[in-house]
Design a protein that fits this description.
298 residues; mainly alpha; 14 helices; binds zinc ion
Length: 298
């Protein structure tokens, strides 16, 4: 088994020293309705119409299941592994993590990680890509994704990941949506139109807004046990909805930890899944915060 190095270079050294420009206000709002954002709104409309036309409780349960499985994939893979290198795994499982997370239709693995690292570098500073304080709730939630300023993957921010050709392949614009399309086809083949509507359309819309809520609502509502330089907050409701990501103030306080719930009562389902995978030797060296960090004395 080939071990993938998780000795991530310091974010300071891999991030661009020049802040990128951010368009705000009505111009940014208008950009989120550009033609290429049509698919995003089209999926919303199709999910709403489909949910009404094919309503069933079985469908609701299917949407919830598809949502939580993919939420764990997004948070374990895109966020904790690729963005923060919070644990180690094999090169083969690394690929599977990226493939699974891309079924979320949240663009490519390198795109996701590079923009997330940028957020941590400039959290709630003028250069932050998605800061409620700086550019408002709309922009922080979805405006920055739908606009055209952040389409490009900044390879300099993910130099530790771009060395893997299979990740560059998955991140390619012509490829990055294929895992999501494949999942949609599988739901359609197994469950017909109803399976496609609930298992893919409805759950994907839920997954988008669940993930995006960490960029927006987790910097607005909740408690701040740690005096970080940003607005990040701990919010138990968001933590339940996002399988642990709602402990966002903990996360900004100590980013490289595999667990974002620091205390036993801070439910963190993604971390529990990682612990089970570690039991089977699929992942290892899960990073945890030192006691002094949790206590807030370091
Ligand atoms: Zn944040
Ligand atoms: Zn993060």
């Amino acid at each position: 088994m080939t071990t993938v190095s998780t000795l991530a270079p310091s974010l300071e050294s891999e991030l661009s020293p020049q802040p990128l420009p951010v368009t705000r206000g009505w111009r940014a709002w208008l950009r989120s309705f550009r033609p290429s954002a049509g698919a995003f709104w089209g999926v919303h409309a199709a999910a709403l119409i489909g949910a009404i036309a094919f309503f069933s409780w079985k469908g609701v349960l299917l949407a919830i299941a598809s949502y939580f499985v993919r939420m764990v994939l997004v948070t374990a893979a895109y966020h904790r592994y690729f963005s923060h290198r919070a644990f180690k795994t094999s090169r083969a499982f690394q690929f599977l993590l990226a493939l699974g997370a891309q079924s979320s239709a949240q663009k490519g693995v390198l795109w996701w990680a590079s923009h997330h690292r940028h957020h941590h570098k400039y959290s709630d500073m003028p250069e932050d890509i998605h800061s409620v304080r700086r550019s408002g709730l709309w922009h922080a939630h979805i405006g920055w994704i739908l606009g055209d300023e952040w389409d490009h993957t900044n390879d300099a921010l993910v130099a530790d990941l771009t060395k893997y050709p299979e990740l560059r392949f998955l991140n390619h614009r012509a490829v990055q949506l294929l895992p999501a399309v494949a999942l949609a086809v599988v739901f359609g083949l197994l469950g017909g139109v109803s399976g496609f509507v609930w298992g893919f359309l409805v759950s994907t819309v839920m997954l988008w807004h669940g993930s995006f809520s960490i960029n927006s609502l987790s910097h607005l509502f909740g408690k701040r046990p740690y005096a970080t330089t940003d607005d990040s907050r701990n919010n138990w409701a968001l933590a339940l909805l996002t399988t642990g990501e709602g402990w966002h103030n903990n996360h900004h306080h100590y980013q490289s930890s595999a667990n974002q719930g620091f205390r036993w009562w801070e439910i963190d389902v993604t971390y529990y899944v990682l612990r089970v995978l570690a039991l089977f030797g699929v992942v290892w060296d899960l990073r945890r915060p030192p006691a002094a960090v949790v206590a807030g004395t370091a």
